Amino acid sequence: MKSFRRKIAVQAAFTAAVAIMTLTPAGSEELKPYSEGAIRSLGVSTERIARINLVFNKLVNDGKLPGAVMLVARKGQVIFSSSLGFRDKGAGKPMTNDSIFRIYSMTKPLVSVAAMTLVEDGTMELTDPISKFLPAFKDMQVAEMTPNADGKPSYSIVPANKPITIQDLLRHTAGFAYGEITKNEPVKQAYIEAKFYTPGEAEYDHRKMTPEEQVERMAKIPLIHQPGSTFEYSMAVDILGRAVEAASGQRLSVFLQERLFKPLKMADTSFFVPAEKLERLARPLQVDPATGQENKLIDVSSEPKNDSGGAGAVSTAMDYLRFCQMLLNGGELDGVRILSPAMVRLMISDHLGSRIATPLQPGEVLLGTQGFTFGLGFAVRQTYGLAAIPGAAGEFTWAGAAGTYFWVDPKDQLVAVMMTQSPGPTRPYYRRLFQTLVYQALEN
Question: Which residues make Cβ contacts (< 8 Å) with residue 62, sequence separation at least 6?
């Protein structure tokens, strides 16, 4: 694979002016202006891609979003970069391209890749039961639901009919849940009692318990489905992070730093923001404009007791773009190989098939649309149709609860990252909008 050429084309909101910056972590210097013709040679209309800024600036001006950083790369070269609105609107601080964001569930692909490096090491296999690494999960129970004559559900506790595997954790078929989401009332209450979810407080915040406490508490809660039977978005990747720690003998953040962040020069990706970088942390609007409710996000200003593999990381748009480009390149970036091409292909393939139930499809969770299955850490688009957004079969994607989003399209050699801190029900709308605006700018 060719090295990822270190270039960024900066597209202004109302012009077609393009400039190049080095594709390095925050703080890189801007280089000489770059010709519009070179961007056009990549099949991108500079006039049409300017619509991204036009549309998102209006959203900021209308008070719908605090601000955003957006990056798009094609064929190994970044062809659009924009930081607009506010990093902290209350303090009047403008957004900058080095702003740091809580990425919530965009932590999951990072940890999924980390697990697959252990598979390539021969330390872990996808068919391994997780009890091989975390013995507390050896004999699990399942809270099976059956409808009563009046239509109301009743639950019975039965033994799991098979072990949970590493593959189940990666594709969300382990039978775990999110207390914030599940409709299984006994399990929901158990998650609340175990402090995995506290109504009225910041959601998806598991930073206050140690890894050992997390495993011990989770292993005592019944599953909501038999392992391997049903796709249900859940805390599975938090438990995957605990398995990575057990298999590697390292804290998750340390393992990720050594195997992923440092090799890929992801200098601002971590599980908390140190004091010297807190000024760069992006903040949401105080009140969500769609619900009128106060926005509550996890506190990332100090080191957590555990590194939440499902929702705990922070990053920048540039850091995450480098991660995405590595995957598009088949596991390599700038001469550094993270995974083999075969392993990347395995991760971005369909791992649900026709035998695993999908009461709520991955695309419906992410974008409010059908057309996606799930691989090992990513939603994967199955066809050109069905999904209510443009894209290509084989693209893979995920997002975060505070508004962050990315996708990688191997067919069109495209990667795109949007970072914002805008939790709430309008997240899928902004994801679809960004993706539509990117594709309408492609000319071939």
Answer: none
Which domain range does residue 341 map to? Answer: 8-101+252-268+315-439
- What CA–CA distance (Å, rounded) separates 364 from 379? 10
* Residue 87 forms part of a structural domain: yes
310 inside domain: no
At which residue do the structure tokens 């703080």 appear?
A: 27
Do the domain assignments include residue 294?
no
Burial class (CB in 10 A: 0-12, 13-18, 19+), 348: buried
Cα gap 5→274, rounded to integer Å: 30
pTM of the model: 0.91
* Predicted pLDDT at 138: 97
Please list, in sequence order, all residues whose beta carbon lies within 8 angstroms of the beta carbon of residue 334, skipping any fewer than 6 positions away: 3, 4, 265
Task: Assess whether 342 and 207 both reside in one domain.
Answer: no
Residue type, 35: S
Q: Do 79 and 14 share a structural domain?
A: yes
Do residues 362 and 379 lie in contact, with contact meaning Cβ atoms separated by under 8 Å? yes
434 with 399, same domain: the answer is: yes
Number of domains in the chain: 2
Phi and psi at 89, nearest 5°, equal -65, -35
Nearest CA to 321 out of 18, 11, 72 is that of: 72
List, run by run, the mean pLDDT of 10-residue segments along the chain (444 residues).
Answer: 42 34 34 52 92 97 97 90 96 97 98 98 98 98 85 89 98 97 94 93 93 98 97 98 98 98 97 98 96 95 97 97 97 96 98 95 94 98 94 97 97 97 95 98 94
